[in-house]
Write a structure and sequence with these properties.
Blueprint: H1 3-14, H2 26-29, H3 35-52, E1 58-62, H4 70-87, H5 91-105, H6 107-121, E2 125-126, E3 129-130, E4 133-136, H7 142-152, E5 158-162, E6 179-182, H8 185-194, E7 196-201, H9 206-220, E8 229-232, H10 234-240, H11 243-248, E9 260-263, H12 266-277
Parallel strand pairs: 1-4, 1-7, 4-5, 5-6, 7-8, 8-9
Antiparallel strand pairs: 2-3
Helix pairs in contact: 3-8, 4-5, 6-7, 6-12
Length: 288
C-alpha cells in the first residue's frame, strides 16, 4: 500500500462502529443482542435512585388517563354542546357528548385521588427514610392527581413513565429525580411492585385493568409480598368486573376474593392500608 492508502485504511479502522467504546456505542446498545443488558439497566437505574433518595416503601395508585379535573371536564362538555348547536345532528358529536357526560361524572375521582395521596403522604417520613410514597405511571388523569396530592403536602412522589407510540409526558407534580422512563412494560411493572405496601385502583380502562390483574396474579400465586388491593369506587368496579361470578364459575377460589377490598373515600382506603399493616413484619423487597 502507498502511504496515502495506509492513511485511508487507518481512517476506516478508526471510524468503524467496532472501534467505538461499547458504553458509548448507542447503536450497539440498542441492538437486539443487547436486550438483556437494557433490561438490566432498566432495573438498576431506578433502583439506584430510589435507594439514594431513601425510598423504603410505596403505595401504588393506578387509574385512567381520561379522569380529569371537574372544571376541565365541564369545559369540554360545554364545548361539545356548542359544537352540536352549530353543527346539527351528527352522531359522532352525540356520542362525544355522551362520553363527556360520563367523564364529568367521574371527575370526583380526580379530587379524591388527590386527597388520598395527600393523606397518605403526610405519613411518609420517619426513621430517616420514606415509606408509603405514592407511585403512579407519571402521566395525566388519576396519575397526575396522585402525584399532585403528594406534591401538595411537600412529600416525595414517584412517576414511572413508559415510551409509547403517542409519546407520554410526565405530569409536573412528580419529584425531580424520582421520574423514570421505561421502554419495557415488564420492568416497569416490577418496579411498581417491588416496594409496594398497597395498591389502590381508581376507575380506568385497559391499562388500569392490565396492571390490576398483574398484581392480583402475583398475590394469588404468592409471588410478591402481602399487600391490600383496594378497588376505589365500588359502583364502578362492581359493574366493570363481576369478581363473584369468577368464583361461582370455579375459575378462582372463594378465598381469592379476599385479596380485594373496596373503598369509596380517601379515609376508608387509608384505614384499610393502616389496619392491614398493623403488627405485620417489615415489608421486604419483592424478589421474583
Amino acid at each position: 500500500m502507498t502511504p496515502q492508502e495506509l492513511d485511508e485504511h487507518l481512517d476506516q479502522i478508526i471510524n468503524s462502529p467496532s472501534y467505538v467504546v461499547p458504553e458509548l456505542d448507542t447503536d450497539f446498545l440498542q441492538s437486539a443482542a443487547m436486550r438483556g443488558l437494557r433490561l438490566q439497566l432498566e432495573y438498576t437505574k431506578p433502583e439506584h435512585y430510589l435507594q439514594r433518595m431513601k425510598i423504603n416503601s410505596t403505595i401504588i395508585l393506578f387509574g385512567g388517563t381520561q379522569v380529569i379535573e371537574e372544571d376541565k371536564a365541564r369545559a369540554n362538555l360545554e364545548r361539545l354542546r356548542k359544537q352540536k348547536a352549530t353543527g346539527g345532528d351528527d352522531p359522532k358529536i352525540e356520542r362525544a357528548i355522551q362520553r363527556a357526560n360520563r367523564q364529568l361524572a367521574k371527575a370526583k375521582y380526580y379530587e379524591e385521588a388527590r386527597a388520598f395521596s395527600s393523606l397518605v403522604s403526610q405519613h411518609s417520613y420517619h426513621n430517616n427514610r420514606y415509606d408509603y410514597v405514592v407511585v403512579t405511571g407519571g402521566g395525566p388523569g388519576i396519575m397526575e392527581a396522585g402525584n399532585r396530592g403528594a406534591y401538595d403536602v411537600g412529600a416525595p412522589t414517584i412517576g414511572l413513565n413508559i415510551t409509547l407510540p403517542e409519546e407520554q409526558h410526565p405530569n409536573p407534580y412528580i419529584t425531580p429525580g424520582l421520574c423514570f422512563l421505561f421502554h419495557y412494560f415488564a420492568m416497569r411493572k416490577m418496579h411498581f411492585m417491588m416496594r409496594a405496601k398497597a395498591l389502590v385502583v381508581f376507575p380506568g380502562g385497559f391499562g388500569t385493568l392490565d396492571e390490576l390483574f398483574d398484581a392480583l396474579t402475583l398475590r394469588q400465586t404468592n409471588r410478591m409480598q402481602e399487600i391490600p388491593i383496594i378497588m376505589y369506587g365500588t359502583d364502578y368496579w362492581k359493574q366493570v368486573i363481576n369478581f363473584e361470578f369468577l368464583a361461582d364459575e370455579a375459575v378462582v377460589s372463594d378465598e381469592h376474593l379476599d385479596l380485594l377490598d373496596f373503598a369509596d373515600s380517601p379515609s376508608e382506603a387509608w384505614n384499610i392500608i393502616r389496619k392491614f399493616h398493623e403488627n405485620k413484619p417489615e415489608t421486604e423487597v419483592f424478589a421474583p
